[in-house]
Amino acid sequence: MKILILGNQGMLGTELEICFKEYEIIAWDKDDIDITNQEQIDEKISELTPDIIINAAAYNAVDAAEENKEIANSVNGYAVGFLAKTCHDNDIILIHYSTNYVFNGINKNGYTENDEPNPQSAYAESKALGEKLLQKYGKKYYLIRTARIFGSPAKSNLAKKSFVNVMLDLTKSQNSIKVVHEEFSNATYSKDLAQRTKEILEWKKVFGIYHVTNEGACTWYEFAKKIFEIKNLDVEIIPVTSKEFPRPAVRPNYSVLLNTKLPKLRGWEDALKEYLSE
User: What CATH architecture does domain 2-150+186-211 belong to?
Assistant: First the structure.
């Protein structure tokens, strides 16, 4: 089985390469293919003839997307539609990742795979656009929503750092850190996400939408507190509201993803302990 991984220089792409190493892997990043160019996608993928494409490429700059909507829509939205069309025409399975941010965050009980997206920011709108085009043009696809990915740093120096690594970096220069004590969501270990992606394929699950995160939910403050607790770091963490930490993009207050279709992954605290022990 030949698998093409797109966005292999990112955190998730790096982990996917490791996880799928027993298969025939081709790993491409933006220097290898421009996924916003439909003609290039058609040409290169038709020539490569993969059985499966895993799209881990994304524009993840949530706040910057407010001023770069065209770029965000191009990478997170229209490019997914281009990939879906090409995969449909060549009978290729397509796996694509989306985000908890596609929901408005009003439902305190969380969101299932069948809940309707209602994005509240430019980044979220771009990801929701990708979901819509994937479902419109795709045939054999897995749409995997996830949240707050952390794990081994990406190969690319330009890739966005995870919250875990940002917090650890801050401790090198600060004795106290302000962290938002709102915005409940899941956290996801990239290693577990890659493994579950592999299992979805190997289990031959029905095509459609899946939620994949580690079990449990927390605020950013609780997340940071657990990081420093595991690392035994003496850092003062100051809980603040979103209003005290203004950011350009709106974040959903309650965006817990509910998994109703797959076996549950381990809790986020256990996954975090493994990552921080490596």
Answer: 3-Layer(aba) Sandwich (3.40)
Residue 265: alpha-carbon gap to chain centroid: 16
* Contact (Cβ atoms closer than 8 angstroms) between residue 97 and residue 55: yes
For 18-72, what is each residue's pLDDT tens digit?
999 999 999 999 999 999 999 999 999 999 999 999 999 999 999 999 999 999 9
Closest of 226, 218, 227 to residue 169, by C-alpha: 227
Query: Phi, psi (5° rounding) for residue 180?
Result: -65, 125
The partner residues of 52 in beta bridges, in order of sequence, read 3, 93
**Where does CATH 3.90.25.10 sit in the chain?**
163-184+217-256+267-277
Give CA separation, 39 vs 34, 50, 81, in Å: 10, 17, 13
Q: Which residues are catalytic?
A: 123
The pLDDT of residue 246: 86
Where in the chain do CATH 3.40.50.720 domains reside?
2-150+186-211
Q: CA quadruple 63, 65, 67, 68: dihedral positive or negative?
A: positive
CATH number of 163-184+217-256+267-277: 3.90.25.10
Cα–Cα distance measured from residue 43 to residue 48, given in angstroms and rounded to the nearest whole number: 9
- Decide: 129 and 79 in contact? Cβ < 8 Å: no
Rounded CA-CA distance 201/198 in Å is: 5
